[in-house]
Specification:
This protein has 199 residues and is an alpha+beta fold. The protein is 44% helix and 8% strand. It has 2 domains: 5-81, 3-Layer(aba) Sandwich (Glutaredoxin), CATH 3.40.30; 92-178, Glutathione S-transferase Yfyf (Class Pi), Chain A, domain 2 (Up-down Bundle). The protein has helices at residues 16-26, 42-48, 71-81, 92-107, 110-115, 131-151, 164-178, and strands spanning 5-9, 32-36, 59-61, 67-69. Helix 1 (16-26) crosses helix 7 and helix 4 packs antiparallel against helix 6 (131-151). The structure holds glutathione. Residues 10, 15-18, 39-40, 44, 56-58, 70-71, 106 line the site of glutathione.
Length: 199
């Protein structure tokens, strides 16, 4: 029997962390067996009994049996085990930048996350974001613009090639679309010279 990764996830249309966890496999061509469980039901708790001490989706089990919850830990563990998969940029400055973005997403944006739950099946034309949500959107613009400038990204992505930072912000991008949230286009990349990729 071939052992592969197992990944417990909720519905990827509604569970932003599950979508991130799944993207950390799918976008980097890593094979995984997914186990879907409905969130906020006994189904998730029952499924996770096999993944002690995890309590949330996504949770992965590595082929050798380590249980890893917390999406940032999943990203780091996959990146370490599969260094050529591309979770982090190879160039040190772009890699550091991508790590900052993923970590801040993991820890922050609480107003946006609670006011605008991810829902890939809905689209609202009218949005009345609170001041706290507007502050999160402003921080997003700052971070995204900084990442693209400082890494000299010439792709549509944040730090050059698609990285875990993009996977972490994918559910945020869907919220902007779902709730028609006001964000400005990125500023032109002329304000500071990018740090060379080879540093
Ligand atoms: N900090 C966790 C958050 C994961 C999380 O909150 N997952 C939600 C679904 S989006 C969940 O499993 N909720 C079920 C529960 O809390 O009972 C991570 O990074 O993975």
């Amino acid at each position: 029997m071939t052992h592969t990764y197992d990944l417990v996830i909720g519905d990827r249309a509604y569970s932003s962390w599950s979508l991130r966890g799944w993207l950390l496999f799918d976008a980097f061509q890593l094979p995984v067996t997914t186990r879907s469980a409905r969130l906020y039901t006994d189904e998730l708790a029952t499924t996770l009994k096999d993944y002690f001490p995890a309590r949330t989706a996504p949770t992965m089990r590595t082929p050798d049996g380590s249980v890893v919850s917390e999406t940032i830990a999943i990203a780091e563990e996959l990146a370490t085990r599969h260094p050529d998969a591309g979770h982090w940029p190879k160039a040190p400055h772009a890699r550091a930048t991508a790590r900052v973005l993923a970590a801040e997403m993991h820890a922050g944006f609480t107003a946006l996350r609670s006011a605008c739950p991810m829902n890939l099946r809905a689209s609202y034309a009218d949005s009345q974001p609170s001041d706290a949500v507007r502050a999160d959107l402003s921080r997003l613009e700052t971070l995204w613009s900084w990442a693209r400038t400082t890494t000299g990204s010439a792709t549509p992505w944040l730090c050059g090639d698609y990285s875990a930072a993009d996977a972490f912000f994918a559910p945020v991008a869907t919220r902007i679309a779902t709730y028609n949230l006001p964000v400005r286009a990125p500023r032109p990349r002329t304000r500071s010279a990018p740090i060379p990729a080879t540093r």
